[in-house]
């Protein structure tokens, strides 16, 4: 072999060696995925059904790889009742419609010069907005159309929200985003992306759940904005078809408690869409990492549900579903202190408190890792009445 060919041969061998090593590591995570046990909390057979759906979904009307009909098929397979479609700059989406038993609700994701703004619940067409225009123009147009605006993946590295003034005006905030989880994993290909890809070969939902590793910045930013007004916490599927729609829908969704929206939904698609979007905008919807279990029996009590406020010194009560001890824990951010019983939160000062339930979920290897499970919108903490 000539001296010129020898380095090339060594390079090829090195590349193949790395590929085989990566395949071996992925195979290990695939093997471990076969032992991942879901759900962590079993559904109650006699519980009232919650209305379930996916928010922030893309189709072939923009950059998704599935038609609306394909999305509806995947949603039905995952047990969802509705899907909020948010194709990029789709200012004239089709009207709400029932497809294969799933309600498809029109929405939009507007590209602005400051980032992406999702919206749903419009009562009139959005007018006077062009892609990549000023953010304040998009916010005003959505409000004029009667819709609810949401900061889409607001702290994502690729498309963060960069305009401070409008950030304070928009009521919705994607606290958890499947697309953001994926992009975070891309920055840690060996420790996060490779385990998820390997697990997906055996258990696609487990692969998606391994991507769900929250970072502190979204919560910090959310609490900054929520101190001044009521905010909506949403989980954005941001589904494009890769990973598969059904896998994303099985991993996380938005759910409406029976006391907020008792089923069944109206068979009139327009009326049903209004029911769902009003419930989503009420602040009483729940983000659920559904792979970990159903939220039957969960409740957060001790605040005014109409204003979503409670006074300093009040105690919030977290009603947990039946579960195996040690598999669930309540986590608190902001102006609240978890009591020793693990189910009461004392409100310690004016501001805002975010209360979530986390589950001890299957991890990358054969152990378990703590992951978010139930995520309600925050409660504003207001000064108590003056003393006598």
Automatic annotation (TrEMBL):
Pfam families per record: PHP
Domain Polymerase/histidinol phosphatase N-terminal: from-to ranges: 53-114
Gene Ontology molecular functions: 5'-3' DNA exonuclease activity; 5'-3' RNA exonuclease activity
Top-level taxon of the source organism: Bacteria
SMART domains assigned: POLIIIAc
The protein's name: PHP domain-containing protein
Species whose genome carries this gene: Corallococcus interemptor
Source lineage: Bacteria, Pseudomonadati, Myxococcota, Myxococcia, Myxococcales
């Amino acid at each position: 072999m000539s001296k010129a060919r020898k380095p090339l041969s060594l390079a090829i061998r090195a590349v193949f060696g790395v590929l085989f090593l990566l395949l071996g590591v992925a195979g290990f995570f695939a093997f471990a995925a076969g032992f991942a046990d879901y759900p962590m909390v079993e559904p109650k057979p006699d519980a009232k059904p919650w209305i379930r759906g996916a928010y922030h979904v893309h189709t072939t009307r923009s950059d998704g790889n599935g038609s609306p009909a394909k999305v509806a098929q995947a949603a039905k397979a995952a047990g969802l009742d509705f899907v909020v479609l948010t194709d990029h700059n789709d200012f004239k989406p089709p009207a709400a419609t029932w497809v294969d038993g799933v309600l498809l609700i029109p929405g939009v994701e507007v590209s602005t010069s400051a980032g992406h703004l999702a919206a749903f619940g419009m009562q009139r067409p959005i007018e006077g907005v062009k892609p990549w225009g000023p953010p304040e123009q998009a916010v005003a147009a959505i409000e004029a159309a009667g819709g609810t605006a949401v900061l889409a993946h607001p702290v994502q590295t690729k498309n963060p929200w960069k305009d401070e003034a409008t950030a304070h005006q928009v009521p919705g905030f994607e606290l958890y985003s499947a697309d953001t989880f994926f992009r975070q994993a891309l920055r840690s290909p060996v420790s996060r992306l490779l385990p998820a890809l390997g697990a997906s070969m055996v258990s696609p939902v487990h692969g998606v759940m391994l991507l769900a590793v929250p970072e502190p910045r979204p919560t910090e930013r959310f609490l900054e904005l929520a101190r001044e007004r009521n905010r909506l916490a949403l989980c954005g599927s941001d589904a494009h078809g890769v990973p598969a729609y059904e896998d994303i829908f099985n991993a996380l969704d938005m759910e409406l408690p029976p006391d907020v929206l008792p089923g069944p939904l109206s068979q009139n698609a327009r009326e049903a869409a209004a029911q769902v979007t009003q419930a989503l905008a009420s602040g009483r919807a729940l983000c659920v990492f559904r792979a970990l279990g159903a939220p039957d029996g969960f409740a957060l009590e001790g605040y005014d549900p109409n204003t979503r406020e409670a006074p300093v010194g009040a105690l919030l009560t977290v009603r947990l579903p039946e579960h195996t001890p040690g598999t669930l824990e309540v986590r608190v951010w902001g102006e609240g202190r978890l009591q020793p019983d693990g189910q009461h939160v004392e409100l310690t000062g004016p501001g805002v408190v975010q209360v979530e339930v986390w589950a001890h979920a299957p991890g990358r290897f054969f152990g378990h890792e703590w992951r978010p499970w139930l995520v309600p919108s925050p409660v504003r903490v207001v000064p108590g009445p003056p003393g006598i």
